[in-house]
UniProtKB/TrEMBL annotation, chains A, B:
PROSITE patterns: HTH_TETR_1 (PS01081), HTH_TETR_2 (PS50977)
Portion annotated as DNA-binding: 31-50
Keywords assigned by UniProt, alphabetized: DNA-binding, Transcription, Transcription regulation
Protein name as annotated: TetR family transcriptional regulator
Gene3D superfamilies: Tetracycline Repressor, domain 2
Segments traversing the membrane: none
Pfam family for this entry, one: TetR_C_27
Taxonomy of the source species: Bacteria, Bacillati, Actinomycetota, Actinomycetes, Kitasatosporales
Amino acid sequence: MPPAAAEPLTPERILATTEEVLRRFGPTKATVVDVARALGVSHGSVYRHFPSKAALREAVTDRWLARSVVMLEEIASAPTGSAPSKLEAWLEALFEAKRHKAGDDPELFATYTVLLAENSGVVDAHLSELIDQLGRIIAEGVAAGSLAADDVPAAARAVFDATGRFHDPQYAADWLSPTIITEFEAVTALVIRGLRA
Amino acid sequence: MPPAAAEPLTPERILATTEEVLRRFGPTKATVVDVARALGVSHGSVYRHFPSKAALREAVTDRWLARSVVMLEEIASAPTGSAPSKLEAWLEALFEAKRHKAGDDPELFATYTVLLAENSGVVDAHLSELIDQLGRIIAEGVAAGSLAADDVPAAARAVFDATGRFHDPQYAADWLSPTIITEFEAVTALVIRGLRA
C-alpha cells in the first residue's frame, strides 16, 4: 500500500491500513507507528482518530466482525420468504462467511482470533447482534404460525448455541473436513424442525 | 500415595498412580520414573506393562474418558423409559459428568486437555462410542414411533454436534456461567423436539 497522504485521513482509511499492517506484521508486532508509516502520516495524526493502540485494535476488530453482519441483516429483514427458509438461509450465510474468512485469508483470520480474545466486549456485542437477528426471524415465524417458541430470545440463543460448531472460530480446523457440509445440513435441519409449529 | 510394592503391579494400579503423578507434576514434567518411584518399583516394571511413555499416556487418557462412558451406557441400554426421556437423561448426564470433571479437579482437567490433544485416535474412538450410544437411543425411539429419523447415525451425530457447547472441553470456561443450565435446557429441548415423530 503506497503512502497517499494527499487523501483525507478518515477513520475508515486508518482501519483498512491497520488491517493490512496486521496481516503483514502479525498482531504481536504491528504498531501504531507502522500504521502511520503505511499511511504516510505522523503517528500523532492516527492518534487524533484513535486515542490508543488498544482503541485502534478494538475498532479494527469491530469493523471485521461488522462486515458479515450487514449481509446477514439483509436476510433477516428481507420482506419476502417464510421464516423457516430465512432461518436456513441465514445459518448458511453465517457458516459460509466464517469459512471464507478462515479459508481465504488464514493469516488474517489467525490475527483476528488474537484480537477477538483481547476484545471480548466487542465480541459479546457482535454475538448479541447476531442472536437479535435470529430472534427477529423467529418472531416473524411465530407471528405467521410457521414456527413455535414460548420465549423467542431464548429460542434464538438456543439456535445460535446449537449451530456453534459452524460459526465459532474455535472450530475453524473442522471446517476443512470433507463431511462438514453434510454435518452442517443435518444440524440445521434438526434445529429448524425443532422450531416448527 | 505411599509406595506399596507388596501389592501386585497391575495395569490398573499403574494407571491410577500415573493419574496421581500427572496431577502432581503436570503433563509436561511427569515421567515414567516418577510413576515407578510412586509405586515403589523399578521403571522397568512399569515398561513391562506399558512399552513407552506414549503408551502409558494413551492408556491413562483412555481410562479417564472411559469412566463416563459406563454411566452413559447404563442410561442408553436401560430396559425402561421412552426414547425422548432417555435422550434427555443421557445429555444431562454427559453435561454433568463433564462439568464435574472440569470443576472438581481443574488441574487434572487441564492435564487431560493436553493429553486429549496428543491422543486424537483415543478421543475419536471415545466420541464414536458416545455417538453410537445416542444412535441406539434414537433407533429405539424410531422403532417405538416416538422419534423420527431417516438416517439414524446422521441424526445421532447431529444431536452430538448441536450440544457441543455442553460437552466439548473447549467450552469448559462457559460452564461456570450462571445461565449455562438454562441454555443447556433450551438446546436440549430444541434438539429433542426436532427429533420427535
